[in-house]
Write a structure and sequence with these properties.
- The chain folds into 2 domains: about 5-60, DNA polymerase, domain 1, CATH 1.10.150.530; about 65-359, TIM Barrel.
- About 35% of the residues lie in helices and about 20% in strands.
- It has 12 helices and 13 strands.
- The chain has helices at about 10-20, 25-35, 50-60, 120, 130-145, 165-175, 195-205, 220-225, 235-250, 270-280, 305-315, 345; strands at about 65-70, 80-85, 90-95, 100-105, 110, 125-130, 155, 190-195, 210-215, 255-260, 285-290, 320-325, 355.
- Helix 1 (about 10-20) packs across helix 2.
């Protein structure tokens, strides 16, 4: 009933049970209900004493978390539109590629970075999501798939800048990595950021630490200042050094560099040459992304020939590079297409109205 229970780590549940003078095995029972069975209604936790269930229900009041709509594209991508207790909407995407499945998770309602080629920021920023709201997305998507088909990878690449919701992000990571939480390996979780350097430094001190992806999108500060406004505070050279430190301190193999190719903006041979120079002798994987159009945008996608030429040049310079397979574009579920102002579009066309807080 209370999605806030989803956001309680095993350690926080232990502290709570200690404060309430409950035996410590109650914390283990709660972990089983909340994180393994994805049950957040205390009244359904049948092996707990009635008084404890009532106390939990009072301490963690009911907060709505509903599926407004579920959209499926022909490539297998599924986009979920969720409604929160304050009538905000967020989007989460289930990505499928062969036998690989990943959940693309949102961390904010909107985005305060306001990259002009991304829908999430163009519709404004409302607030950070709580840890419980972030975990609720994961549980809702996992519940929607067949047994044995649950996604094994999580990417914080949905709406919002994860490192601007740092406290909730770290709480979620605690739960994801804990054996009494979701028990995921650190290599199965990726945090994508436009580059908040102090938060990157703190993230790499985690044990374990997640994989890191840097949304770069330009090879010089002049262009990146326009595409990623936060670059004016954290310029490219400083970002790459921070990412290099992340590799060394977090023990990860490499950092992924995400680069959305925009026609005539950052996709020339000169841009590719400059990017190759920036990344030379660094342990980075470049992930080239064809731009997914959003309504009202002044930007256009680079041609497939341009993308291939850009890729070939990077590889010829010894830069490990790939082109991300475009998924979910027809349902506005692709990279950069998620938005937060859908309530008015969906009120007359709700698909199922599922309230996950009551499962």
């Amino acid at each position: 009933m209370s999605i806030d229970l989803y956001g309680q780590s095993p350690r926080s549940l232990e502290r709570l049970m200690s404060e309430w003078n409950e035996p410590m095995f109650r914390a283990n029972q709660l972990c089983l209900w909340i994180h393994e069975r994805a049950e957040c209604d205390p009244h359904r936790m049948t092996d707990l004493p009635q008084k404890l269930r009532e106390r939990l229900a009072a301490a963690f009041p009911s907060r709505s978390f509903r599926t407004l709509r579920r959209l499926r594209s022909r490539d297998g991508t599924v986009k979920f539109v969720f409604s929160l207790h304050d009538d905000s909407t967020i989007e989460t995407v289930l990505l499928s590629s062969g036998k690989q499945r990943a959940i693309c998770v949102s961390t904010q309602v909107g985005c305060s970075v306001k990259c002009p080629f991304c829908a999430s920021g163009s519709h404004g920023f409302s607030r950070n999501l709580t840890a419980g709201e972030i975990l609720a997305q994961i549980h809702a998507v996992r519940k929607s798939v067949d047994v044995g088909m649950a996604p094994r990878n999580l990417v914080f690449m949905g709406m919002g800048e994860p490192l601007m919701n740092e406290m909730a992000l770290h709480r979620v990571l605690d739960i994801l990595f804990s054996p009494r939480g979701l028990g995921l390996g650190s290599r199965r979780v990726t945090v994508s950021t436009v580059g908040v350097i102090p938060a990157i430094e703190r993230l790499c001190d985690r044990d374990p630490a997640p994989e890191l992806a840097l949304s770069l999108h330009a090879s010089c500060d002049k262009v990146r200042d326009q595409l990623v406004p936060l670059n004016r505070k954290y310029p490219i050279a400083d970002l790459l050094e921070a990412c290099q430190r992340y590799i060394e301190r977090a023990g990860t193999d490499m950092v992924t560099v995400e680069y959305v190719l925009l026609r005539g903006v950052n996709d020339t041979k000169r841009d590719a040459e400059a990017l190759a120079r920036l990344l030379k002798k660094r342990r980075f994987l470049v992930n080239l992304i064809r731009y997914n159009a959003i309504p009202g945008s002044i930007y256009e996608a680079s041609s497939r020939e341009t993308v291939q030429s850009f890729l070939d040049l990077l590889r010829s310079r010894g830069i490990q590079s790939t082109v991300r397979r475009s998924l979910g574009g027809e349902i506005q579920g692709g990279c950069g297409q998620l938005r937060s102002d859908l309530r008015k579009d969906l009120d007359s066309s709700l698909e199922d109205g599922t309230d996950h807080t009551r499962h």
